[in-house]
Amino acid sequence: MRRRIAVVGGGPAGLTFARVLHRHDHPVTVLERDPSPGARPPGGTLDLHEQLGQLALDKAGVLAEFQALSRPEGQAMRILDTDGTVLRDWRPRPDDLANPEIDRGKLRDLLLGSLDVQWGRDVTEVEPGSRDGVLVHFADGRQETFDLVVGADGAWSRVRPAVTSATPYYTGVTMVETSLDEVDTRHPDLARLIGDGSVAVYGVNRALAAQRNSGGHVKVYAQFRAPLDWHTDLERHMGLNRRTGLDEGLDLADVEAVRSSLLALFDGWAAPVLNLLRHGTAFAHRPLYVLPVAHTWAHVPGVTLLGDAAHLMPPLGAGANLAMLEGAELAESVAAAPGDLAEVVRAFEEQMWARAGRWAKITTAGLERLVGPDPTEALALFDEVQPS
Ligand SMILES: Cc1cc2nc3c(=O)[nH]c(=O)nc-3n(C[C@H](O)[C@H](O)[C@H](O)COP(=O)(O)OP(=O)(O)OC[C@H]3O[C@@H](n4cnc5c(N)ncnc54)[C@H](O)[C@@H]3O)c2cc1C
Predict the structure, then answer these.
(1) Which residue ranges does the chain devote to CATH 3.50.50.60?
(2) Is the pTM of this model over 0.85?
(3) What's the distance, CA 300 to chain centroid?
(4) What's the pLDDT tens digit per position in 280-290?
(5) How much distance in Å is there from the Cα of 11 to the middle of ligand 1?
(6) Where, residue-wise, is CATH 3.30.9.30 in the chain?
(7) Got the DSSP string for 72-103?
(8) In the structure, which protein residues have their CB atom closer than 6 angstroms to any atom of ligand 1?
(9) Residue positions in the annotated binding site?
(10) How far is C-alpha 4 from the chain's CA centre?
(11) Which CATH class is domain 5-75+98-168+291-370?
(12) Average pLDDT in the 266-290 region?
């Protein structure tokens, strides 16, 4: 008898899980809150590692398509001093396929393929332990029962409370994201500064990075150490009011006010670097949250977690990779297991916790060094991880 399996969330974790099950002819219900694939901007670009995300794509049978869509040249990385001096200018060899970049939207479409996703299904709660299985509650009042519910619903998972009381906490680092369009024609100087991949500049407790996506789109990330409510009192929290001329708290929806606050925060940095902020369009406020590094839970029959729902960590290039590999591995184990899934899920969780715990430690230490009091630490970290 086929088990009733649902995955909550159609991000990298949920779609990879579903796609691999689909490949093994095992039915799966994909429940996604967004009303349609294009309901919101898909976000920036992801680098997929050979031994993680690419391995997952191989298990899903779409590695060749990924290779055609991805940008190996996007691995290029330039590091500047705050005065604009180039400190590192690393470019991949043409045959380097270790960590190519792919736009999130393209990855989503690749994984979606012919999958039958149920869009607009907003899960509010998951209740294990009923006689007939695990009960899933939806925002519209409906309920459905499954034998296994996989929570792949990201940082603010509604499935997570069914297995653990852990909730994400603020890292002390906030990110404000903006973007540039048609950079090659509208901002050729910035296009040259960014190159084919990314440029990053590290100062004391702050960093500014820009990353090329396809089609001349660039995402710019300003990162800085600040209390969560930094914008409510710029003078007290950031020592900024005098220079920004803003007497009251910053309205995060006010594009020009956010821009001038950021320009004040990065005051003194080289003009070409600050142009990344000057030409940015909208600004999105993204405080960085994480789950505890060694986050595990007592196994709950019929429910498990994948990806950010299980192990939210600083965005240092591992989260989507882990999410996808976990999705692929769990799907393969489920497809191969006859009957009861408890042992399969238990074994999967042990493996996920061990690997994710290692990466959570690495990325947590990495964030401390990249956005910290000593900018030479950021450069040292780059030299440690980047092949020369
Ligand atoms: C700026 C930035 C850059 C990053 N760069 C990289 C990178 O280069 N490489 C990398 O590996 N990682 C990167 N990451 C991390 C990566 O984005 C995440 O780890 C990854 O998206 C996690 O995938 P996921 O499927 O677990 O969760 P998500 O991507 O968050 O997907 C969750 C899905 O669940 C849906 N959902 C949420 N709640 C519900 C609900 N109640 N009911 C139904 N559906 C729901 C959401 O709509 C969403 O589609 C980056 C993160 C950031 C912020």
Answers:
(1) 5-75+98-168+291-370
(2) yes
(3) 26
(4) 999 999 999 99
(5) 6
(6) 171-289
(7) GGGG-EEEE-TTS-EEEEE---TT--SS-EEE
(8) 8-14, 31-34, 44, 46-47, 121-123, 152-154, 158, 307-309, 315, 317-321, 323
(9) 40, 47, 104, 308
(10) 29
(11) alpha beta
(12) 97
